[in-house]
Amino acid sequence: MMNSMHMREAVKAGDLLPLGEKGRPRVGATLATLFLSILFLVLPALAARAMDIQQVTSPKGITAWLVEDYSVPIVAVRFVFDGGSTQDPVGKEGLANLMTGLFDEGAGPLDSEAFQIRLDDAGAEMSFEETRDGVYGSMRMLAEQRDEAFDLLRLAVNEPRFDQAPIDRIRAQILSGIIANENDPDTVAQHKWARAIYGDHPYSRSDQGSRQSIAAITQDDLKTLHKAVFARGGLHVAVVGAIDAETLKKKLDMVFGDLPQKQALTPVADVEPKLAQRLEVNYDLPQTSLQLAWPGVKRKSADFFPAVLMNEILGGGTFTSRLYQEVREKRGLAYGVNSSLVNQDHADALIVTTGTRSDRVAETLGIVRDVARQLAEDGPTEAELAATKKYLIGAYAISNLDSSSSIAATLVELQLDDLGIDYMQRRAGYINAVTLDQVKAAAKKLLTAEPTIMVVGPPLAGAGKG
Amino acid sequence: MTFQAEWLHGTLLATSLAFTLTGSALADSAVPPNTKPAEFKVTDFLLDNGMEVVVIPDHRAPIVTHMVWYKIGSADEPPGKSGIAHFFEHLMFKATTHHAAGEFDRAVSDIGGSNNAFTSYDYTAFHETVAPSALEQMMGFEADRMRNLILTDDVIKTERDVILEERRSRIDNNPQAVLDEEVDATLWQNQPYRIPVIGWMQEMEQLNRIDATAFYDKYYRPNNAVLIVAGDVEPAMVKALAEKTYGKVARGPDLPPRIRPVEPEQNTKRTVTLSDARVSVPSFSTQWVVPSYHTAKPGEAEALDLLAEILGGGNRSRLYQAVVVQQGIASSAGAYFQGTMLDDTNFTVYGAPRGDAKLADVEAAVDAEVARIASGGVTADELEKAKDRYVRSMVFARDKQDSMAEIYGSTLATGGNVQDVQQWPDRIRKVTADEIKAVAARYLVLARSTTGYLLPQQQAGN
């Protein structure tokens, strides 16, 4: 009984994540809002009451954002170093991913076995993962055992051992996953998509690497990457829970204070996703997946909030979006249909995903494109815009502030985007200031472009429709 | 790090269901001095029309999770009508005599709230998360659609297309899901858990307005519902609002006890095999019929939870250590137990090979660990650590309001009560090593098990 739950709405955009395996979730209406259906909210005016964010700087100069909260006796720590899988050398793709699998596999005087026993005894959970643009670490600990937990984090961050036995074991697990997905239509399609829209850019590569590339990775490669990335210059930290600023300062120095000052990252160029392509990945599947990419908008652009509102109206996280109404509610063409703005450090896009049975592909694609065309030509109505503003303002915390861990994750993203410690107070103002004309302009600018369209399923009978 | 293994999803799901816990359980250990005593103190009461209400105050943020759980799931469906429970969940979002289609959704999104619903074997739940000031409005909408839905043939036809697409997307497009469905149909010889929640395709295609209306009239009644309100609220206020809204809905006819067909004695080892071109690495899972919290003798379900944790709960588990780390033949191996079910449930072990290892070797190694725990039991140290992990997970669970609401809702919808949830940690603490060995020996017998194999497509001539 594996699939016991059936939701009215998919909690994922579709089988194909936008723009390859991962895009960093951002504030606003990005990937994060796709998960809103099962999460939480705090209302905007209340953000101040709910959250007093302190900026804490340690004697050695490590800065963290802290929300002190004793109502549940835990501490959540989240941090990121700039430079993710884009830093994998050519021919060693999968290096950052492999590295993140090894931080709890031995550090300092402790081998893998000893480290994991200590971690379990400390009642703490530690995890690391990479995106294209960063290496993230998270730890969740019981307040009463935080000293032991922070000590293990210090070891993992500063002195990972990268012993050969765990390297070989974790590599073998990753390899098994790569092989397992070689004939998986979604994985094959994702790889084709990434290559088509990113060309030679590092974003076109798989974060897990290939059979050959992960076989080529050595212990020295791991040590070199760790040294290049784990430096104070590219670090952002957030902590939420039962800890005060003075205690945190000591912990920050202990965990991060002895890292080198400067990162040694390979520069990564910006890339414009290549649009106006038709990609077909043929498999004999009961349901055909559709994925469309239009241009996106940079997080720092003045068009950002108009585009966020436009995307929300088009196919964002509510049951009232135009795509949801036209594709699912009125015609029953699909179970899930979503649009999302994806912001990464070096590329942006607006992605729509859905899936339908093969004899209704042309119809579904036609409806999706008509909805986009109409929004580009006429823009939304005043009423739609007003309702969407209220939604976006109120729903901020649904995907951002529903637990200590998610608050910590949000605070790290705010730091990465350089939005300021008082951003939550200002955000509603930015949204309210957007005019109907600005949203119309954003719709016109993004949605009049010819999208890249990928179809994953049986061959289309009358190709070129839509 | 990421690596994909289909079974991991099942493990996570099972873990979240197994770790049923409440904050009040921690009262003596870890609550800091400045936590108000009223925080997390659960109140439950009954409305005059038979609707049960549970209130879980949590004042950390000005939000509230409002859930209505109906004690009706796919395992309660009439023969030949598989999928009707889930289909009906979708239909609950249509027009009522008081509100046009989509009005409820718009009311939720206009205030930045979230709403959704889900269906399982034993229950169907509808939920909204909003500011406390909107709680009465949510209750009004929910109470309205409990009785006032308008079902037309047009609405039925379009929404039926949606659930057919949902089935294609969740099941038919995914070889693992197709196999799971048929493993369930083999593991369960008589119990309705053999039928998928989403339904069999050919029966879903025939679901109609008459089926839906009959289903609605029978099950969507206040005396078949549990209201869970978790968040920035006080029980007295919730009670007043509930009486004002749900309290106005007339009690329905008494529903018969939920007595369903149960399993006959099982005497065979069965296997189910799916070969598919999309599969490159084989995997297996073996399942047994075991008691759930609702059907078990005292202490047995708690022992099964701890057995699953020690045998295959994570990186420190016996299966992971033996098969993945020491023998180095598997990319994944583990175990899980889904205890929160109305009838007998399943206990599962799984694994997949890595490198040159064969699936048969992994399966044999997993079987050997199961046999070892059934004959030799667990150590005191393993048991204490497993209990510690459960206690820790409870503290972490309190950090999320909706997990608390789901723990109470699923327990009450599967024959349990508030005390069952609150006393669960104490019952876990009392489990002995002997009891764990006993349940392993009694239930994890290969001669009466069902194993599913997901295999790559056979090459011609093989």
Structural write-up:
The complex is a heterodimer of chains A (466) and B (462). With 466 residues, chain A is an alpha+beta fold. Chain A folds into two domains: 31-38 and 270-409 and 418-456, Cytochrome Bc1 Complex, Chain A, domain 1; 51-256, Cytochrome Bc1 Complex, Chain A, domain 1, CATH 3.30.830. Chain A contains 16 helices and 14 strands. Chain A has a six-stranded mixed sheet with strand order 2-3-9-4-8-7, with helices on both faces. In chain A, strand 5 and strand 6 (110-111) form a beta hairpin. In chain A, helix 4 (146-158) packs parallel to helix 9, helix 10 crosses helix 13 (382-395) and helix 12 crosses helix 16. Chain A is globular. Residues 1-49 of chain A have low confidence and may be disordered. Chain B has 462 residues and is α+β, with helices and mostly antiparallel strands. Chain B folds into two domains: 42-248, Cytochrome Bc1 Complex, Chain A, domain 1 (2-Layer Sandwich), CATH 3.30.830; 270-456, 2-Layer Sandwich (Cytochrome Bc1 Complex, Chain A, domain 1). Chain B contains 16 helices and eleven strands. Chain B has helices spanning 6-18, 84-91, 103-110, 135-147, 153-172, 175-187, 201-204, 209-219, 235-244, 300-312, 318-326, 359-376, 380-397, 401-413, 418-430, 433-443, and strands at residues 43-46, 52-57, 64-70, 114-119, 124-130, 225-231, 270-276, 283-290, 330-337, 345-353, 450-456. In chain B, helix 2 (84-91) packs across helix 8, helix 11 (318-326) runs antiparallel to helix 12 (359-376) and helix 12 crosses helix 16. The model of chain B is unreliable at 1-38 (pLDDT under 50). The chains are: A alpha+beta (466), B alpha+beta (462). At the A-B interface, strand 1, helix 2, helix 3, strand 7 and helix 5 of A face helix 1, helix 2, helix 3, strand 4 and helix 5 of B.
What characteristics describe this protein?
heterodimer, A: 466 residues, alpha+beta, Cytochrome Bc1 Complex, Chain A, domain 1, 5-stranded mixed sheet, 16 helices, 18% strand, globular, disordered N terminus, B: 462 residues, 2 domains, 11 strands
